[in-house]
Amino acid sequence: MIIRTSLCMAAALVFLCGCAIKKIDSIKRMEWLIGTWEHKTSKGTLYETWSKASKNELTGKSYMLKGKDTIIYETIRLVQDKDMLFYIPVVKNQNGGSPIRFEGKTISKAQFVFENKTHDFPQVISYLKINEDSLKAEISGLRNGQEERRYFPMKRLK
């Protein structure tokens, strides 16, 4: 009986350790995003900068440079909370300045997709790694009853 109990406890410990490693690996899969990315538009160049805040969090911001001024559009947190991943933006002049949580649905080495079906627009935010220096960000969902998608091809700054 003691041997059986010990074996069960050992198996449970191995399982729990495996889960803990998986949780850390999920946020680590997104670390390729760290750095500064640019998206050129007719209105100027949009930048997105990401850094590692802790072992469970990346922080980002999107902004545009106008002369010597930096205009920040949104701040973002990518957070590992227990076994879930969340994309949490705060967008300037939207949602009363409150953060909105998007839950991780697809997390891989080259893509991540987050959803919040109750948000007005977007309901889905995704990033696709094309290669080490190129990505495609996308926001999508319903707006006024119509499906809408916006693409943001970005290049990494060296």
End-to-end CA span: 62 Å
Overall morphology: globular
What about the largest sheet? 10 strands, antiparallel, barrel
Count of helical regions? 1
The CATH class is identified as Mainly Beta
Number of strands: 10
Strand arrangement within the widest β-sheet reads 1-2-3-4-5-6-7-8-9-10
pLDDT < 50 stretches: 4-24
CA radius of gyration: 19 Å
The CATH architecture assignment turns out to be Beta Barrel
Walk me through the structure.
The model is unreliable at 4-24 (pLDDT under 50). The N and C termini lie far apart (62 Å). The chain is built from one helix and ten strands; from the N terminus they run αββββββββββ. The protein has 158 residues and is an alpha+beta fold. The chain has a ten-stranded antiparallel beta barrel. It has one helix at 2-28, and strands at residues 35-41, 44-54, 57-66, 69-81, 84-91, 102-107, 111-115, 124-131, 134-143, 146-156. The protein has one domain: Lipocalin. A hairpin with a 2-residue loop joins β3 (57-66) and β4 (69-81).
Structure summarized in a few sentences:
This protein has one helix spanning 2-28, and strands at residues 35-41, 44-54, 57-66, 69-81, 84-91, 102-107, 111-115, 124-131, 134-143, 146-156. The chain has 158 residues and is of the alpha+beta class. The radius of gyration is 19 Å and the shape is globular.
Entry keywords:
single chain, 158 residues, alpha+beta, Lipocalin, ten-stranded antiparallel barrel
